[in-house]
Specification:
Strand content: 15-25%
Structural class: alpha/beta
CATH superfamily of the largest domain: Vaccinia Virus protein VP39
CATH architecture of the largest domain: 3-Layer(aba) Sandwich
Distance between the termini: 61 Å
Number of helices: 15
Order of helices and strands: HEEHEHHHEEHHHHEEHEHEHEEEHEHEH
Largest sheet: 9 strands, mixed
Shape: elongated
CATH class of the largest domain: Alpha Beta
Radius of gyration: 31 Å
Mean pLDDT: 86
Low-confidence stretches: 119-129
Helix content: 25-40%
Number of domains: 2
Number of strands: 14
Strand order of the largest sheet: 6-7-14-13-8-9-11-10-12
Length: about 425
């Protein structure tokens, strides 16, 4: 049947069966009022009327379109007949864009004046006018809706017929798509370590995943964010203000996720410890301790000649209730904690350039949460927080934007290293 239709006829969807039945009954009672238009031997407009006439045995009135703008002709006829929402018009605009691209390939000769195709291909500042914008204007919807419809078509094509039928709006479809994308990023890992707990790992930027975390569900967060002190791409910021604003944004993002009683440990480089503490104070975070992580092995700065070699990092401890100190006094209570930075020949292994030792993460997990609690890490790196959380009977929610480190985390958890 499609061989009978001109490509431009497919710009608008066919009627659903209920609407078609009403049209057929009307033609049976009153005859065919509007003619069926052909172009180059194919139906250009009137597919539903043609079908009804064939079923009713009626010879329809046929007219031949002889103009040079079949797309514009079809759009002009159908927009006046159909009551389409902005979302439905956006889907129509997608088909217009596609048809225009086909026509553009066919027509390498000069276009007739005032054709829709010529309007699309006009030059502005030596650049073609954006086809999506022109298609949107042609059907009377906004360009953003057309762009959204294109994204939906690429990512979830099964939703497009529902939009075309008026069963789903573009905003509703975007919500469905966002959920689909979030679900695709969610990886649940259940390590076989004997503990009845789980790790949920989200691949991608924390900003795309943080809304998956239920407000009030996190008991402890251990955050080892970018430091703004190395040459790694993920650690570079244009200015100190940009870095501090980045820090403020992720702190704001995790804040509603905490339970009423919670603890938070934030690692940072000594270079910016003062700036970050000022931010924490300004935004009302209850800073309880300033833990110094001291490492004896040199991880950077071995050749420093004009200053002291840095062998420590700051960890801000923020909390709203008592820590779980062991009953016997030991060095775990001291604000200066000495733990060797992981190396490839250590038991921890070396999976990330700024990997933290399991010994200090285990300490924070045990004193900052209880068995069965949920631990959050939005910059998971190689997944040490998740390993230590689950190994101590806690659930973990991890987020990591690097696909390579997502695989590292999955392998470490499954291999239980």
């Amino acid at each position: 049947m499609n061989e009978l239709y001109h490509p431009a006829a497919n710009i608008f969807p066919l009627m659903d069966e209920v609407a078609y039945a009403a049209l057929r009954d009307d033609i049976a009672a009153n005859g065919l009022i509007e003619p069926i238009w052909f172009c180059d031997g194919k139906i250009l407009d009137g597919r539903n009327r043609w079908r009804a006439c064939q079923e009713l045995g009626i010879s329809p009135e046929i007219r031949e379109y002889t103009g040079d703008d079949p797309i514009g002709f079809v759009v002009s006829l159908n927009l006046s007949r159909r009551h389409l929402t902005s979302s439905q018009r956006a889907v129509v605009a997608l088909e217009i864009e596609r048809q225009l691209a086909i026509e553009a390939k066919k027509r390498q000769i000069r276009k007739p004046a005032n054709s829709v195709l010529q309007i699309i291909e006009k030059q502005t500042d030596n650049q073609p006018i954006h086809a999506a914008k022109q298609a949107a204007a042609l059907v009377g919807t906004n360009r953003q809706y057309v762009s959204d419809a294109k994204r939906i078509q690429a990512a979830a094509p099964e939703l497009l017929p529902q939009i075309a039928a008026g069963e789903l709006s573009i905003p509703e479809a975007k919500r469905v798509l966002r959920k689909k994308e979030r679900d695709a990023r969610r990886i649940e890992v259940n390590p076989d370590n004997g503990n009845n707990v789980r790790v949920v790992l989200y691949a991608g930027d924390y900003r795309d995943n943080i809304n998956n975390v239920v407000d009030g569900s996190v008991n402890l967060a251990i955050i080892d964010p970018p430091y703004n002190v190395t040459n790694y791409e993920w650690d570079k910021f244009g200015s100190l203000d940009e870095f501090i604003e980045f820090t403020r944004q992720w702190l704001d993002a995790i804040r509603p996720k905490f339970a009423e009683d919670y603890h938070l440990f934030v690692f940072c480089a000594p270079d910016f410890a003062a700036d970050i503490e000022m931010l924490l104070r300004r935004d009302g975070w209850p800073v309880k301790s300033r833990v110094i992580w001291h490492y004896r092995n040199l991880v950077r700065g071995r050749d420093v000649t004009d200053k002291f070699i840095q062998n420590w990092q700051m960890v801000f401890h923020i909390g709203t209730h008592k820590l779980n100190w062991p009953p016997d006094w030991d060095d775990s209570r001291f604000a200066v904690q000495t733990h060797a930075a992981p190396q490839s020949n250590f038991n921890d292994g070396k999976y990330h350039p700024h990997q933290k030792p399991k010994t200090i993460i285990n300490l924070f997990v045990n004193i900052g949460s209880n068995i069965g609690d949920t631990v959050l890490d939005i910059f998971a790196g190689s997944g040490t927080t998740g390993i230590c959380a689950v190994d101590n009977g806690r659930n973990a929610i991890l987020m990591e934007q690097s696909p390579d480190y997502v695989e590292v985390i999955k392998n470490r958890l499954r291999g239980w290293l």
